[in-house]
Amino acid sequence: MEGKVKLQEVLPADIEKRSFEIISREMGDVKLDPLEEPIVKRVIHTSADFDYLENLVFSPGAVETAMEAILQGVTIVTDTNMAWSGINKRALERFGGKACCFMADEDVREAAGKDGTTRAAASMKKAASLPGPLIFAIGNAPTALVTLYELIQEGRLCPALIIGVPVGFVNVVESKELILKTDVPYIVARGRKGGSNIAAAICNALLYQCGGRD
Amino acid sequence: MEGKVKLQEVLPADIEKRSFEIISREMGDVKLDPLEEPIVKRVIHTSADFDYLENLVFSPGAVETAMEAILQGVTIVTDTNMAWSGINKRALERFGGKACCFMADEDVREAAGKDGTTRAAASMKKAASLPGPLIFAIGNAPTALVTLYELIQEGRLCPALIIGVPVGFVNVVESKELILKTDVPYIVARGRKGGSNIAAAICNALLYQCGGRD
User: Fold this and answer.
1) Which of A213, B22, B33, B149 could disulfide-pair with A169, CB 3.0 to 4.6 Å?
2) Which candidate in B4, B10, B15 is best for mutational testing of the A interface (most A CBs within 10 A)?
3) Is A172 in contact with B48 (Cβ distance < 8 A)?
4) Exposure pattern of B175-200 as b/e (b: 16+ CB <10 Å)?
5) What is the predicted pLDDT for the residue at A3?
6) What are the extents of the domains in chain B?
7) Average pLDDT of chain A?
């Protein structure tokens, strides 16, 4: 019935393994830091886009710091419900962690209106008062990254990790460059590319590296 | 405080407009079908990836058929909660439509176990019995597309549109090619690229084209 289209016979459980083998093969001789490599590969797995081999930059020790935070029971803050949806909450809860997104909250809408800013910016301010450790997973809003930058500069926020991977054409590149200037641990996709799916994939890669899926 | 990083001063409401202007400019002389163009541009807006100029293929009249379905009150079925999250439900509800994802349903888990198939495949079978019109927005699972293909061949499903944009390395290309062989309306991202974000972006582009965001 399927004519000339030939599907590979792969058990569902083996598809991810096979995918990572293909990614490794196509990466060729590229040598990555052993802690960073699974994250880069999962992002490529999620996007089928090898540009991330070049685009993804890690501050020194970012992965270790993030893994420690996860093992302590981290709160992951996202700037979209899509990123929130994509995070493996079962893996996160194994370590006593949780994920939250304040974008749709009424008080965030009100604060944004009052301050003449975006809901993304207001939701970051709200999140900054949560008890740590905190990981920020930003896949959409440059204004979220700009607000995080300002909070850090003002000494009001000390995140365990900033995942800075908004996608787009206006202030996206610039907002990421701001994060690269900070001293906080970061994983940033330089350039225009990124997205909520990329933000979630990086969170999941970190969780799996901690043993969240064993 | 921001050193050499210079942010553009753009009102939040204007960011999308400015982004689409940049996309149009960088597309250059490419001529697209006027009904398909806003969809291609929104996908590029969501991914910052101009490969979709080449990858996205539309069956003749697919956009019109999908828009008619939306105006009648469509049910959009997704294969991930991420895609479901990304769909603008307010726009959809304006036309009496709704979005659903059965992946986490207990009966789907059981059916997949019993049939030795994936939850994605089982969730498509469950969705096939919904009252129409139906749009399937598949951004993750090749097995969802294969199941839709089989249901169509067996005459058990007549969707208003299949959005076939799974991402990945195993059976992804092949499952999309299957959909290209059908007579049903489709929007497919040929090749490896796609994702839940792309599936949601295509749904939203269709909704906005119907006036869902005026």
Assistant:
1) B22
2) B15
3) yes
4) bbbbbeebebbbbbbbebbbbbbbbb
5) 54
6) 12-20+32-209
7) 95
CB B74 within 8 A of CB B206: no
CATH code for the structural domain at A54-209: 3.40.50.10230
Q: At what angle do helices B196-209 and B62-72 cross, to 10 degrees?
A: 70
User: Of A118, A129, A195, whose CA–CA distance to A163 is shortest?
Assistant: A195
Q: Supply the pLDDT for residue A55.
A: 96
Q: Is B28 on the interface with A (CB under 8 A)?
A: no
Statement: residue B133 has pLDDT above 80: yes
B45 given a catalytic annotation: yes
Q: A80 to chain B: which residues are within 8 Å by CB?
A: 85-86
Q: Which of B146, B196, B200 sits opposite A7 (nearest CB)?
A: B146
Is 90 exceeded by the pLDDT of residue A140? yes
A154 burial level (CB within 10 Å; 0-12, 13-18, 19+): exposed
- Mind listing the pLDDT tens digit for each residue in A26-65? 999 999 999 999 999 999 999 999 999 999 999 999 999 9
The answer, for B146 touching chain A at a CB cutoff of 8 Å, is yes
Q: How confident is the model at residue A105 (pLDDT cuts 50, 70, 90)?
A: very high
Residues of B in contact with A192 (CB under 8 A): 48
* Cα–chain center distance at B132: 17
CA neighbor of A170 nearest in space, from B19, B212, B126, B50? B19
